[in-house]
Amino acid sequence: MNSEKRSKWMACSAASRYPFRFSLTLPWECVVCSHASCSLLNELQAFDMRLEESFFSEHPALGEFVHWPIIGNLLPPMAVGEPKRSEMALNLDGWAFDHLPSRIPMLNKRLLSAGNSSVIIYIHCEAGMDRTGEVSGSYYIGYLGWSFQRALYYDQHNVESRNISVESRNAFQWYCLYLQASGLRPTIDCTTGV
Questions:
Q1: In this predicted structure, what is the pLDDT of residue 16?
Q2: What is the rounded (10 degree) CA torsion for 90, 180, 124, 36?
Q3: Using an 8 Å Cβ cutoff, are 123 and 35 in contact?
Q4: Which of 42, 43, 40, 44 is nearest to 68 (CA)?
Q5: Choice among 63-67, 85-89, 94-98, 147-151 with the minimum mean pLDDT
Q6: Long-range contacts of 38-47 (CB under 8 A, 24+ apart)
Q7: pLDDT tens digit string along 50-80?
Q8: What is the Cα–Cα distance from 63 to 12, expressed in whole angstroms?
Q9: How many Å apart are CA 15 and CA 136, to the nearest integer?
């Protein structure tokens, strides 16, 4: 991805989390793709999701709504010994609910698909921290070349002033291990640095 598209990704990611803090004018030739990761158990989040889905149904020229249920992962990767951990990481899409190994490349493909138009992918959950951080952090390490520690630090210090949930951090770390085991980023350090 060229630096211009990376800059757009970062600007839109930041603006989506704090829309009133940034005065961002979107270009008319942009494609907005809203990726919501709402809790299936929270009735208020379901209501918000239906509102957003309804908006894009009524205004298809403004973009599209995509719902990816994201729940994180209860299994801490470092609680699994080697070589089982690497085997599980390599087969992550086969057992982890969030399907990050197939979904993160879909985000990148979407960013590159609009030709000369700008593409804005608005990734969000209710708080804009845990599930949002899991998905956006996975994109940062998979396509922007960030280290796991840098992306985790960004999620925990620049987005919100609290730690990402354990479940989201676990899923994010499993994705890092997937990148390592699959050879896509064989030298990436997937430890939390803590």
A1: 44
A2: -20
A3: yes
A4: 40
A5: 63-67
A6: 38/67, 38/69, 38/125, 38/126, 39/71, 39/125, 39/126, 40/69, 42/126, 44/126, 45/125, 45/126
A7: 888 888 888 787 778 888 888 899 999 999 9
A8: 14
A9: 13
Per-residue b/e over 8-24, b at no fewer than 16 CB within 10 Å? bbeebbbbbbeeeeeee
**How does DSSP classify residue 161?**
S
Q: What is the bridge-based pairing of β-strands 118-124 and 30-36? A: parallel
**Residue 163 DSSP symbol:** P
Q: Are the C-beta atoms of 33 and 110 separated by less than 8 Å?
A: yes
Task: Output the pTM of the full model.
Answer: 0.78
Separation CA 169–CA 192 (nearest Å): 9
- The residues near 139 (Cβ < 8 Å, ≥ 6 apart) are 9, 104, 107, 108
Distance CA 37, CA 18 (A): 17
Taking residue 84's Cβ as centre, other Cβ atoms within 10 Å add up to 9
